[in-house]
Amino acid sequence: MKASNLLLKTLRDIPSDAENISHRLLLRAGYVQQVAAGIFSLLPIGNRSISKIRKIVREEMNLSGCAEVNMPVIQPKELWEESGRAETFFPPLANFKDRRERTLVIAPTHEETATSMIRSFVSSYRDLPITIYQIQTKFRDETRPRGGLLRVREFEMKDAYSFDVDEKGLDKSFEIMVKTYKNIFARCGLDVVIVDADSGGIGGKESKEFVLIADSGDDTILISPDESYAANLEKAEFIKTDYSEDKILDKELIETKHINTIEKLSDFCKIPKNKIAKSVIYNSDGEIIIATIRADYDVNETKLRNILGSKELRIASSQEVINAGFIPGYASPINKSNVKSVIDNSIELGSNYIAGANKEHFHLKNVNYPRDFKSEIIGDIAEAKEGFQSPNNSGELISKKGIEVGHVFKLGCIYSEVMRADFTDKNGDTKPILMGCYGIGIGRLLAAAIEANHDDNGINLPPSISPFTVNLIGINLDEEKVKNKCNIIYDLLLNNGVDVLFDDRDLPPGVKFKDSDLAGFPVRIIISKKNFEKNTIEIKSRNDSNSDYISETKLVDYINNLINI
RNA sequence: CGGGGCGUGGCGCAGCGGUAGCGCACCCGCUUUGGGAGCGGGGGGUCGCAGGUUCAAAUCCUGCCGCCCCGACCA
Predict the structure, then answer these.
(1) What percent of chain A has pLDDT over 90?
(2) Å between A525 CA and B28 C1'?
(3) Given phi > 0 = left and psi -120 to 50 = alpha, else beta, which region is A6?
(4) Residue with CA nearest to B33's C1' atom
(5) Could you tell me where the DSSP H helices lie in A225-374?
(6) Distance of CA A253 to the CA centre of its chain
(7) pLDDT 10s digits, A337-389
(8) pLDDT tier, A203 (very low <50, low <70, confident <90, very high otherwise)
């Protein structure tokens, strides 16, 4: 390919809209053009990079025995009413009406479509297991698109759906996908961490995220020093410290005038936070609930939401707190049996707490569980933090920022039951099919790769997903000799299957060098008068400040070696 | 959806009541050719949209729209 055919235009000035590194570089290097918030066009070189990612994904998916399909982006709303997600999906499904006033939705994901496809064609255990996948456009009207390609509204996703007869089969399909994902990310040159994750709105019981560690990521993960444990913050567990004392003392009322925060209470009573029972009041789907946790920990709202089974959970407003009969700063579940109470199990690992007295300016001392208060729900609702003990006892957790590039879920029967995707087993019994679903954001993968692979000069992608692996630059193409040599080398490389760009633009060398580094071509070949004297070809790797000079006959081998083909 | 910021040639910005400017990019000519070239000439903007105030609005007022950032939310 020649640069003159590529719409290759780079920007010197950083577009003011872009904050994020990958976003800036994608714009500056001419990979993408923004069309609207969270909606992008791919320019020629960006599209080449994306095509390479798609190709890797396809090859690995096919290799693992998945069948590629293509499901429509535009779908009847009825399909979504069947699963019940027409009303519950967030952000709300984008939709429009056709000429017959029928509502069509723009698919944000394809569990329903995949389930519908499979239930029509699978009726026996003999048809299973099967995994289908597609690389397809989705649309989610995100409340806040951000970071260029990192979080967009219209996006391309590789989504796969597995169908099995039993848990064992599902586990196997799931493991195959995990392995396939590892291969995909490795071939894209990305070092990803696999973490336990919350399954969120998709549903299901087990889920893992593939996270690329990067400071710009909006995912927080906790990982043990030897990486034997890794989980998303939403899911992360830890070993809670035991501070309980042998002697259980008698409860007493103490005056704590204007002492209405944990900090003040700790100072005022001269006690560590682990001697305080902290209560936080939430609104869970309209119901006021009180969550109590030892004050050296904080509530993890995802865990709380899961334990309650609530759809919408938020901190109660101060008015709601008062209406429920609590006094802000002095609340606790003590003598409050009318309000649903959730207790973190850290409370059991302590005793003689100070807790709110549900009376202004007063706290209770030597409060003990379950002597002084009870709860219908007790479990883990604590947020893990850096320095806490890893749940598998492998040291202190470390907190890192990352970008979620893939996510796999064991869905079980949640879709197959409501949508009646059944099969007949060996005994002739009708059973729901067990499902798994598996996603990789294609565009996000490119953005993440740039976040992880760039320097002051620009993008520095691995050869496997760079728009071109080799950039051929002729210095002063007005000179016949240079021009001819360039054409000879260009043909040589093309004929040997090298993915080469010939920068045939009539521009000074400095501009071509800068563009080459900015766009992130891994290997550069330079043809110039200077090199004719030595009768060598100059070749330079993006990651090396020095050039090598080699003979023309060795060029192809040398390049292939350089990019590890 | 809450908070903040910004909309002026393709990009980055200045101008903030009185003839719309600068840098980069673009076009033409000459020179130049190893890290975003030099000189000369040139083209391009209903100043986001709609109202209003004024003799006069890019500039002041009102409303709307768009985009970015933080938060909420989120495969």
Answers:
(1) 80
(2) 33
(3) alpha
(4) A476
(5) 262-269, 301-308, 318-323
(6) 48
(7) 888 999 999 999 999 999 999 989 999 999 998 899 988 899 999 999 999 99
(8) low
Cα–Cα nearest to A273, from A299, A243, A295: A295
State, as a whole number of angstroms, the distance between the CA of A512 and the C1' of B58: 38
Q: Which nucleotides of B are covered by protein (CB under 7 A)?
A: 1-2, 6, 11-13, 23-25, 32-37, 66-75
Which residue in the block uniquely carries the two structure tokens 């690389």? A135
Q: What is the distance in angstroms measured between the alpha-carbon CA of A12 and the sugar C1' of B44?
A: 20
In sequence order, the β-bridge partners of residue A378 are A343
What is the DSSP track for A26-58? HHHTTSEEEEETTEEEEPHHHHHHHHHHHHHHH
DSSP per residue over A380-445, as a string? --BPP-TTSBPTTSSSB-EEEEEEEEEEEEEEETHHHHHTT-EEE-TTS-EEEPEEEEEEEEHHHH
Q: Which nucleotide has the shortest C1'-to-CA distance from A444?
A: B75
Q: Taking every pair of C-alpha atoms in chain A, what is the biggest distance, in angstroms? A: 98
Q: Using the predicted structure, report yes or no on whether residue A165 has a pLDDT greater than 80.
A: yes
Q: Which residue has the tokens 């007869």?
A: A165
Q: Confidence class of residue A194 from pLDDT cuts 50, 70 and 90?
A: very high
Q: Residue A469: what are its φ and ψ, rounded to 5°?
A: -90, -30
Residues A276, A256: Cα–Cα separation, whole Å:
14
Q: Which two tokens stand for residue A159?
A: 């989504």
| pLDDT tens readout for residues A220-271 | 999 999 999 999 999 999 999 999 888 889 999 999 988 888 888 998 999 9
pLDDT band at A105 (very low <50, low <70, confident <90, very high): very high
CA dist A300 and A384 (Å) reads 8
Report the distance from CA of residue A362 to the C1' of nucleotide B74 in Å, as an integer. 40
Rounded to whole angstroms, the distance from the CA of residue A152 to the C1' of nucleotide B48 is 23
Low-confidence winner among A25-29, A126-130, A272-276, A312-316 (lowest mean pLDDT): A312-316
What ipTM does this complex have?
0.94
Q: A470-474 and A523-527: which strand pairing?
A: parallel
Three-class DSSP category at A316: coil
Nearest residue by alpha-carbon distance to C1' of B12: A13
Torsion of CA A464, A466, A467, A472, to 10 degrees: -100
